[in-house]
Design brief:
Distance between the termini: 73 Å
CATH architecture of the largest domain: Sandwich
Number of domains: 2
Strand content: 35-45%
Largest sheet: 9 strands, mixed
CATH topology of the largest domain: Immunoglobulin-like
Oligomer: single chain
Strand order of the largest sheet: 14-7-6-3-4-5-2-1-15
Helix content: 10-25%
Order of helices and strands: HEEEEEEEEEEEEEHEEE
Shape: globular
Number of strands: 16
């Protein structure tokens, strides 16, 4: 005669059955009606020229439409002594830029101030973000060197890191006239890689499309990011392009330093304002790496 299962085992079987059933239930989620957020993204560097801040409403997750830019905002950047006002770029709603002679100075803290009517109620809301510009890492030279994989040579890096900051360096590569954005592939280095604060022949793998041919120009760029800005760039890239490992999943919410000045504001924000210096050097390939 079969025995009736005891209560503990019976409960385990019942719970497992309920979980299996629940996993197959169809759930309808309406993502198109999510309340939009204020999205702000931009950064300043130590190089003279236009610097841009983009201000938009966030768009629905599955939409293919570009986010709606927010015009007529009052946008400025202060270094504690001077205030620099940005103007909206003609025919580019929501894109604001500095004057052409603007550049950031290492060791200074920059405050981004934005005033705009996000909810279109006739009253402007105030937002702020703060970014510190670290001191620059000086790149003395770069040298291409063969590795165990012919297609992937090493770039040997020599330089000097300032000894007055916590080092968090973003290393970029590009070949010839390839375009490069801040969200492209980069490697992060912390101060554990340096002897003191000297970079003496650090091996940087050359991941470049289609390999390297003799005569190619390989440009190396090093940016001194804050830890918070590095995390934002990494997480934003994962949010758009997927995660590594593949099942890791993107972050639920990419961190932001854009804050409403009204602590009771119900308007949520996204994006980041950063400040960083960069330096670059290039080398000419003297042989093929294929």
């Amino acid at each position: 005669m079969k025995k009736f299962p005891d209560s503990k085992n019976f409960c385990k079987v019942l719970l497992l059955s309920l979980l299996i059933i629940s996993c197959t239930e169809r759930i309808e989620i309406n993502t198109s009606e999510a309340t939009p957020r204020l999205s702000v993204f931009g950064y300043i560097t130590n190089y003279q020229g236009y610097h841009y801040i983009k201000i938009t409403y966030t768009a629905g997750y599955f939409t293919s439409d570009a986010p709606e830019g927010i015009s007529n905002a009052l946008v400025s950047i202060s270094d504690g002594e001077n205030r620099f006002y940005l103007t909206e770029v003609p025919d580019s709603a929501g894109v604001y830029r500095t004057s052409e002679d603007f550049f950031g100075i290492q060791g200074k803290t920059y405050t981004l101030d934005i005033s705009l009517d996000f909810d279109k109620d006739g009253q402007n809301e105030e937002y702020q973000a703060i970014g510190y510009m670290p001191y620059i890492t000086v790149v003395d030279s770069v040298v291409l060197s063969p590795s165990l994989m012919p297609m992937l040579p090493n770039l040997l890096l020599y330089g000097l890191v300032p000894d007055i900051q916590s080092n968090h360096l973003a290393l970029y590569l590009k070949k010839n006239s390839d375009k490069q954005t801040i969200f492209d592939y980069f490697i992060i280095l912390t101060d554990s890689y340096f002897e003191g604060y000297i970079i003496n022949g650090y091996e940087f793998p050359c991941f470049v499309r289609d390999g390297i041919e003799k005569g190619d120009t390989i440009t190396f760029k090093v940016s001194s990011f804050s830890r918070e800005f590095t995390h934002f760039i990494s997480n934003a890239r994962s949010e758009v392009g997927g995660s590594n490992p593949i099942f890791g999943g993107p972050p639920v919410d990419v961190e932001t330093n854009i804050r409403p000045l009204d602590k009771n504001s119900e308007i949520k924000t996204a994006g980041f304002f950063g400040a960083f210096p960069w330096d670059e050097k290039y080398t000419i390939a003297e042989r093929d790496f294929k």
